[in-house]
Recover the amino acids of this structure.
């Protein structure tokens, strides 16, 4: 009962076990992902960085999934659009900016890889590459190791719907199904694989592919943060109970072009993109928080200003940070190799 | 010390390492209940259980990829490819992933995986059970590649590979499995990766090779010594990557005449790189052009006996090439 004497019906997030603080935090990471992404697009246009591959439109599902995992223990194998995800599990805007500027201190790769190729042993973000979907069998291997060592953890791996056609998706999913491994496969179905639309990639549903591998495949609205949170949370519970993997297909829309090298209006219409901006999960989640009475426009403006400042500082710091030494190109081919390289 | 077959030495290396370290495990097709199609892993599942000797689904990219994932979080997987001919679906995992994990993460992550694969022909295996795929992986920095020709080296190199902090391709020669026997210490020893081995001291010609054809080279050298008084110096590369440049140069300088021998086809093979090293480092020590004796440049080995025989190296072919070089 509240002080008006009426019964307080728990909000949806409370029913899912999330506190007000947690959902506000979740919203913060979605927005941080968006702001970070937008800044990188500008930096590339301004010639400050070479390249950016964008995840605009996908942040809602990314942050929601991260909050449903154990961010202290689980292993993460994100794909290249997962800025909001990796920041939700502990990577800072400065660390990502160091990667965007290809600077020596970049914890992902020391300035070696393109932006969006995440990796941090400290944060259990497993290093990734560009040939798509190779991370899926790795996630299965991490889960196999967890099962062998009786660790109470899961591995969580993301990929696009185009990637779900790769052999590595199918081989990895099948292996995980056979051995009932604690892994969660989340497909961020953003409707396009660069220029090729969903209907030219897949004639069925991504989620149905799980059927063939003997574990549940579920489809959720990726713009609905709490639906994604619930799906990932349940998948995690299944995994740690020893019931095996889950495939989650989160439906969303890539609002930005594939990358800074892509002109998306060559293969889709402005109207289609605009229509999808109306479904933006971040705006929807903000409205939800306001409807719960735990958020308002003033708080939102404050948060936007705070994030803008955080990103500005990260950008300046990364811009001013030193590049790797040219000769460091020769380092780390093998363990303990010399300054001169290997041979 | 015990006399054992090459295949037993490989099995013993896995058994010893699995006894020593519970992070070591084996995965592959038919490796469990059956003990492998060649019996390389026979008895391991009985001893270590099906969790550590895993019969995987028939999918090579997953065998490699799952092993790589486990290796990145501290396990020491030994992934078996049933035949190296079937390893190509795993090439992306090996070259794009395993080889680059340390480098691309700036030394944050590593991938201590071993991929074992039987190479070589002469067993009526036809095109797809006979190949030597070394040259596909050779020249990929980040990978180590070894190819033993004796039981002693097989055990020692496999133990070194399992304990190596980086990915190692272990190319075992399937013709050697039963044909080759030798004394193998029953205690813990390793053969260092990256070090070549002088098999025979000689003064007239130098033969450089690896894997099974070295047996032909040794037999031919004995005969040439007795019959013609030709003294051959023989170097086993043992590790294809990294190549032991110093040992190659030293072996060349011993005689000034070099024959390079391998079963993988000639063009773009390991021998091409060995010969380039010689040209770069000790061209003026040569008294004859570098000679190569390799598999022919055809897609792979046919099954029909006369065709297989034509493709395969033999003691006689090696002996003739050595003789020609000595006469130059």
């Amino acid at each position: 009962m509240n002080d008006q004497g009426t019964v307080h019906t728990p909000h949806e997030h409370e029913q899912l076990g999330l506190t007000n603080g947690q959902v506000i935090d979740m919203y913060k990471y979605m927005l941080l992902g968006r702001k970070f992404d937008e800044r990188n697009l500008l930096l590339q246009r301004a010639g400050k960085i070479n390249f950016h591959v964008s995840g605009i439109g996908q942040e809602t599902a990314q942050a929601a999934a991260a909050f449903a995992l154990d961010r202290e223990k689980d292993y993460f194998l994100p794909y290249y659009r997962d800025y909001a995800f990796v920041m939700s599990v502990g990577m800072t805007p400065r660390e990502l900016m160091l990667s965007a500027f290809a600077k020596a201190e970049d914890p992902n790769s020391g300035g070696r890889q393109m932006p969006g190729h995440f990796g941090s042993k400290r944060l259990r973000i497993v290093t990734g590459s560009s040939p798509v979907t190779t991370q899926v069998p790795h996630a299965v291997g991490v889960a196999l190791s967890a099962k062998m060592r009786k660790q109470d953890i899961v591995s969580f791996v993301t990929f696009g719907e185009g990637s779900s056609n790769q052999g590595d998706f199918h081989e990895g999913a099948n292996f995980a199904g056979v051995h009932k491994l604690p892994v969660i496969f989340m497909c961020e179905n953003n409707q396009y694989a660069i220029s090729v639309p969903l209907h030219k990639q897949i004639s069925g549903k991504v989620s149905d592919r799980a059927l063939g591998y003997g574990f549940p495949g579920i489809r959720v609205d990726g713009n609905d943060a709490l639906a994604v949170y619930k799906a990932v949370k349940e998948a995690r519970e299944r995994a740690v109970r020893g019931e095996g993997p889950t495939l989650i297909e989160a439906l969303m829309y890539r609002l930005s072009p594939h990358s800074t090298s892509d002109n998306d209006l060559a293969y889709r219409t402005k109207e289609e993109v605009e229509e999808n901006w109306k479904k933006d999960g971040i705006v929807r989640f903000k409205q939800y928080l306001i409807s719960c009475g735990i958020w308002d426009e003033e708080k939102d403006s404050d948060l936007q200003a705070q994030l803008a400042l955080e990103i500005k500082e990260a950008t300046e710091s990364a811009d001013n940070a030193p590049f790797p030494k040219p000769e460091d190109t020769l380092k780390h081919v093998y363990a303990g190799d010399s300054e001169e390289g290997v041979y | 010390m015990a006399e054992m077959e090459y295949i037993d030495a490989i099995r013993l290396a896995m058994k010893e390492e699995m006894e020593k370290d519970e992070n070591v495990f084996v995965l592959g097709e038919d490796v469990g209940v059956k003990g492998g199609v060649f019996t390389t892993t026979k008895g391991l599942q009985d001893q270590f259980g099906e969790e550590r000797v895993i019969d995987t689904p028939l999918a090579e990219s997953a065998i490699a990829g799952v092993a790589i994932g486990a290796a990145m979080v501290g396990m020491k997987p030994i992934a078996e490819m049933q035949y190296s001919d079937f390893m190509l679906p795993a090439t992306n995992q090996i070259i794009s992933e395993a080889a680059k994990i340390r480098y691309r993460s700036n030394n944050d992550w590593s991938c201590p995986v071993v991929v074992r694969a039987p190479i070589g022909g002469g067993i009526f295996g036809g095109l797809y059970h006979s190949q030597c795929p070394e040259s596909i992986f050779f020249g990929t920095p980040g990978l180590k590649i070894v190819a033993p020709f004796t039981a002693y080296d097989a055990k020692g190199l496999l133990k070194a590979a399992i304990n190596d902090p980086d990915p190692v391709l272990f190319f075992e020669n399937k013709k050697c499995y039963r044909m080759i026997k030798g004394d193998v210490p029953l205690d813990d020893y390793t053969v260092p990766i990256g070090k070549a081995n002088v098999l025979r001291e000689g003064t007239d010609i130098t033969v450089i090779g690896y894997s099974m054809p070295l047996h032909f080279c040794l037999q031919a050298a004995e005969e040439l010594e007795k019959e013609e008084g030709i003294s051959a110096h023989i170097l086993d590369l043992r590790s294809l990557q990294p190549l032991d440049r110093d040992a190659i140069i030293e072996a060349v300088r011993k005689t000034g005449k070099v024959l390079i021998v391998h079963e993988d086809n000639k063009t773009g093979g390991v021998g091409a790189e060995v010969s380039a090293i010689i040209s770069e480092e000790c061209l003026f020590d040569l008294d004859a052009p570098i000679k190569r004796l390799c598999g022919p440049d055809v897609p792979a080995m046919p099954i029909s006996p006369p065709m297989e025989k034509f493709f395969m190296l033999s003691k006689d072919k090696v002996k003739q090439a050595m003789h020609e070089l000595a006469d130059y």
Observations:
- The domain at 12-318 of chain A is CATH 3.40.50.970 (Rossmann fold).
